[in-house]
Amino acid sequence: MLMKKTTEENIKTARKLVSGFTLIETLVAIAVFSLVASAAYTASYHSISNSIFARDQIIAFYLAQEGIEYVRYQRDTNALSRKEWSSGLEGAVPELPSEFSQFEREVTVKFKENEVEALITSTVSWTQGTKEREISVHNLILDIR
Question: Rounded CA gap, 85 and 115, in Å?
Answer without folding.
Answer: 10
